[in-house]
């Protein structure tokens, strides 16, 4: 006698996983609804990001020999750059070069040497390496936004760099030269804010450069281009005021590069009136918001590409 199966059993709806139920699948992994890292904001996980920043701070305190070597190297190049720019100022009538007095030039050099490690415009390719090896898939499965995650870690690194890579070279410069002392009280909080924004802008730019590995798989080309551009046009090698005025204006309006080294340095040496200085810091804030927005947009696109590629 043939076995009869009720029609209700044949037409029963397929079982839905409660984790992915109601989700719009964008690939074979169905990771979007739970790991939708791009859908989470910084405020949603602020305690987690604070813990990440603190952990990164502690991690960098363990690299004592590397920190000492970096401080020594920055100090040596500080002397070289300082004497070169002082020679430039000495060959100019009145000792002023592009609006910088000798004391301001010396301070510009030493604060720039400290900012180099703090802003970290030559940051490592950690994200690009994780993309190349496929480890980035683990980042996408975590309940944190990868952009905010890396930003929090970079802020922790920057906090340690302020105490080591920034303060020590400035002390070395103060021992060997007469540095410019800011005359305005408002300069100090403005410099602190400008330094924070410079770290954020630098992070966003480096994140975008490394994120190119989602499409190129090897980001060494964009990384080399970034190092060349940021070294020459961020104010690290020389004050951008040495360039023609139209070029400088174009850099400030069209790129975030001057907001990495040039703007924080000019804030501290008080090259401009307070109102102009405040506008420059406001420009940093705008670029920080723009670059972070672009970084998160690129992350959205990249997550789709990772699913399509299969991890």
From TrEMBL:
Keywords: Membrane, Transmembrane, Transmembrane helix. It holds the Pfam family ABC2_membrane_6. The keyword Ribosomal protein does not apply. The chain crosses the membrane at residues 66-93, 105-123, 159-180, 186-205, 226-254, 274-295. InterPro entries: ABC-2_transporter-like. The keyword Magnesium does not apply. PANTHER family: INTEGRAL MEMBRANE PROTEIN, SLR1174 PROTEIN-RELATED. This is ABC-2 type transport system permease protein. It comes from Planosporangium thailandense.
């Amino acid at each position: 006698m043939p076995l009869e199966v009720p029609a209700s059993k044949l037409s029963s709806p397929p079982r839905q996983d409660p984790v992915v139920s109601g989700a719009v699948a964008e690939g074979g992994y169905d990771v979007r609804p739970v790991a939708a890292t791009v859908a989470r904001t910084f405020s949603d996980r602020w305690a987690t990001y604070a813990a990440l920043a603190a952990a990164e701070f502690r991690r960098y305190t363990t690299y004592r020999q590397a920190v000492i070597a970096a401080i020594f190297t920055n100090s040596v190049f500080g002397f070289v750059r300082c004497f070169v720019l002082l020679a430039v100022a000495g060959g100019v009538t009145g000792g002023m070069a592009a609006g910088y007095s000798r004391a301001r030039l010396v301070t510009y050099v030493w604060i720039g040497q400290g900012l180099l490690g703090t802003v970290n415009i030559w940051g490592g390719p950690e994200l690009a390496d994780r993309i190349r090896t496929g480890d980035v898939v683990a980042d996408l499965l975590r309940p944190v936004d990868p952009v905010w995650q890396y930003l929090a870690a970079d802020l922790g690194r920057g906090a340690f760099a302020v105490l080591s890579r920034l303060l020590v070279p400035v002390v070395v410069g103060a021992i060997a030269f007469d540095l410019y002392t800011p005359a305005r009280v408002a300069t100090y909080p403005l410099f602190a804010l400008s330094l924070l924004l410079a770290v954020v802008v630098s992070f966003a730019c480096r994140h975008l450069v490394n994120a190119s590995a989602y499409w190129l798989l090897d980001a060494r080309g964009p990384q080399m281009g970034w190092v060349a551009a940021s070294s020459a046009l961020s104010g690290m090698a020389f004050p951008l005021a040495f360039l023609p005025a139209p070029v400088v204006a174009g850099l400030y309006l069209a790129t975030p590069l001057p907001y990495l080294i040039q703007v924080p340095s000019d804030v501290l040496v008080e090259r401009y009136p307070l109102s102009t200085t405040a506008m420059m810091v406001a420009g940093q804030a705008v670029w920080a918001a723009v670059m972070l927005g672009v970084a998160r947009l690129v992350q959205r696109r990249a997550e789709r590409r990772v699913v399509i590629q299969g991890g």
